C-alpha cells in the first residue's frame, strides 16, 4: 500500500515536472515569436515592451521564479541570433522581457497593486539606464551629444524662416528672428538637461503602468492567478506626498537650479507634482465614469484635450495638481490611502 502511494506520488511529480517544462518551452517560443515580430515589423516595434514580457510574466505568476531564469537565458541566447549582437540582446531582454516578468511575478505573489507597479517601473528604469550607458560608452558623449546635434539640426532647418524674417525687418521684441530662435533652442536645451532624470523616471512610470495593466489583464483572463487591480479612477495621492511636494517647491524656489542640490530638488518637485497631477486626472476620470462608460472614450477625450489644448497646458496641469492635492486631504471618492 505504502509502495503504491509512493509510486503514485513519483508519477504525479514527473507529470508536474513534464507539464512545467512543456509550459516553459511554449512560453519561450511565444516570447521569441513576439520578439521576431516586433523586431522586423516596424509598425509593431512600439509594442515590444508591452507584449514581449507577457508570456514570461504569466509563467512567473503561475510558477514563481522556478523555471523563469532558464527560460530568460534561453530567450537571451535566441535574441543574440535575432539581433546579431550581445548588447542588442541584453537591451531586448532588459527593455522588453524583464519588466513583464517582474510584473507577473509580483502580481502572482499577491504583493499588492502598488508594490507590483513599483517593481515593474524599477525594472523599466533599469532598462533605460542600460540604454543610456550604451549610448554614453559607444556614441560620442552619449545622450547629451545626440540632443545637442538634434537641436543644431532643428536650428538649421529653421534658418530659411528666420532669414526671411530678417530680410523683411520683422523683429520679436528686441531680437531678430535668428536671435530669438537661437535663444529659444538654448532654453529648451537647458530645460531638457535639467529635467532629464525626471523624464526618464516618469517615462518608466508610464511604461511600467501599461505593462503591469496588460500583464494583469492576461493573468486574470487566463485564470492563472487572482490579482487585485486598482482602477485608474481610484488612484489617490497621499497627504505626505503633497506635503513633501509643497515643501520641495518652497526649498527649490529659494535654492535655484544652478547648484547640484537645486537641480535635485527641481527634479523631485517635477516627479511629485507629475504624480499628484496624475491623481488629479484620476479624480476627473472618476467623475466622468458615470457619464462615459467606455475607458477608451475617456482616454480619447483626455488625449484630445492635451493635444489640441496645448496652449492651455500649463493651466490644465496646474488644475490637475490642485485637484490631486485637494483629493489627498478630502478623499472625495472615499478610496482611502491607496498609495501608502
Instruction: Give the helices and strands as they follow along the chain.
Output: HHHHHHHHEEHHHHH
Largest sheet: 2 strands, antiparallel
Number of helices: 13
Counting DSSP E segments of at least 2 residues, the number of strands comes to 2
Largest sheet, order of strands side by side? Answer: 1-2
Strand-pairing-aware structural class: mainly alpha
Mean pLDDT: 78
| Rg, alpha carbons | 25 Å
* Global morphology: globular
Q: Compute the number of structural domains.
A: 2
The amount of helix comes to over 70%
Termini Cα gap: 54 Å
Q: Strand-residue fraction?
A: under 5%
Low-confidence stretches: none
Task: Provide a quick synopsis of the model.
The protein is an all-alpha fold and 340 residues long. Helix content is 78%, strand content 1%. The chain has helices at residues 2-40, 48-51, 54-63, 68-83, 86-108, 113-138, 143-157, 159-167, 177-221, 239-255, 260-288, 295-308, 313-330; strands spanning 171-172, 175-176.
Topology readout:
Elements: H1 2-40, H2 48-51, H3 54-63, H4 68-83, H5 86-108, H6 113-138, H7 143-157, H8 159-167, E1 171-172, E2 175-176, H9 177-221, H10 239-255, H11 260-288, H12 295-308, H13 313-330
Antiparallel strand pairs: 1-2
